[in-house]
Hints:
CATH architecture of the largest domain: 3-Layer(aba) Sandwich
Largest sheet: 8 strands, antiparallel
CATH topology of the largest domain: Rossmann fold
Oligomer: single chain
Number of helices: 12
Strand order of the largest sheet: 9-10-11-12-16-15-14-13
Low-confidence stretches: 5-42, 377-382
Strand content: 25-35%
CATH class of the largest domain: Alpha Beta
Helix content: 10-25%
Radius of gyration: 25 Å
CATH superfamily of the largest domain: von Willebrand factor, type A domain
Distance between the termini: 38 Å
Shape: globular
Number of domains: 4
Amino acid sequence: MRSRRSSLRSAALAFLISTILLIVGCSATDGTAIKAGRTPGEVVPQKIPTLVVLDASDSMNTADAPGPRIDAAKRAVTNLADGLPHGTDFGVVVFGSQMPAKTTRQSRACTDVSTPVPLGPLNTAAVSSQLATIRAQGFTPIGNALEMAANQLPPSGPASIVLVSDGEPTCAPDPCVTAKAIHANRPDVTVSAVGFRTDNADLKCVAADGGGLFVTADNAEQLSARLSAAQNSRDAATRLSTDSRGGIAIGDTLDDVRSANPSFPRNGRKDGDRTIYLWEDCTYEFDDSGKLVEIAPGDPPGSAGTTIDGVTKGTAGSRAIELYGDAWQDSDGVAIFPADEKAGTAYLLGYEGGSSIAEGTVTTVVLCGCLPKKKTTSGTSGGGPEIVKVIAVDKKGSLRDGYTIVNDGSSRSFPSSEMTYCSPGLGAITPGVFRCGTTADSAVVCWNKTSTSQLLCAYSPWEKTLRAWTYSVPPEQKPVKPQDEVVPWALELADGSRCNLRFGGAWDPPPTGYRDIYNCSDGPTKFVVVKDDSEAPAGLFDKSGTAWTVLGRDSNRNGSPSPVPVTKVYYSAAEQ
Length: 576
């Protein structure tokens, strides 16, 4: 069998040596070609009446987005509204926000549906202010909420209803029956669904019966991107979703594909144990059992691929990491990211311009049924810790992920002389994160809010509070190192210890032959050290075993440091 990495490297090389720019892309499912000048597969918001049906049930308080799910959902709806064409009619229907599930009878709680933003000409400021008042606390009357949304639509013309929910309905009517009735009565109205950290069957059938798109989202970044895609489900069909493209899914049999698509080719090209079919500028590969294992848009294969989240040729590799977490495999210019772990699907991203995807730029995007059974990292024989990228402030300077600004008298101003000391924040792996001031007095991880000339600064990834420091001279962006050369901001260890990177001050001396790098609390480990002849991060982690370990010690400076497994590694980052 041929090597997919080899073919992707060849595709990347073809882009470098080509002297003619080929504008290629997968055509839409109805055969309409994508317009030249637009990114292949790009989903452009439609100027059609759009209603978001937002889940504010009690489960949306779960803090795994990271931060509360409801906060991530509010931000995603705000981002969707900001990206819609001027003059679009937009509204928001919410369920579960007014009657606490713990104290309200279900029969009454199932009527908890409201319209904080009635359908009308888009007013982004009003959308943001109304969303800020929503509290997640109730039941899940999805069917009633869909009916309320449909009743607000104009009597004719295309429109989009998009449901955002993290669970199954707890009230009648059946949301699938409701969605089917809406679409049957108004075929030009689509009902799509975004399952937030769930692939619940009820949400899938809402989209299927409503003529729309179903996608899942596992974090705040994915939710924002996929909500925008769901608003224009027709164009989104040209993208690579987590398991399919245009209704053709990884794992489908060749007979199934031909039955649903009569124009699909009858003859393919054999390549080892694979059979390859070229159809509408996309390459489809089937294994020897006749099941689809790979979808690669464009020529060369993957060159016109775009994920449902917008990762495509020219996307910074760091953006893929923001969306999908660290690559499960990354070598030879190809990185593998999970698309749908349950389905075993993955995004294969070819890249150039760096030794890892974090440093490179995407050149090819392929969807495949090739997710490794175990996540591995180059240089390790076992699975690594969870990598957490802390982003407290979005591109607009607004707080995200549950962060607040504390007013405890610690806010201060930076004189212009101190702003010359600004450098990348502790653990910063992207531009836009700063550390200013001097030694232990400094603000160690700060995000720039240019609209108010403030740095919003954190001291620990476990505190959801920021301190606002004003400035008269903006911070200068210094170069940021690749992630594998950055010393992490903080660590969580298997013994329960939480460790913050040192950033100045006076400390007791460590044991002979070692240097203290992190101060720890909440567990038996008090310090994380490296040997005197080592540097962090190269000498920080031992990746040779089944888990990453660091050398930890207690407060006894005469004791010997011992290996402690690492469960989480924290970096700081900014939205790019």
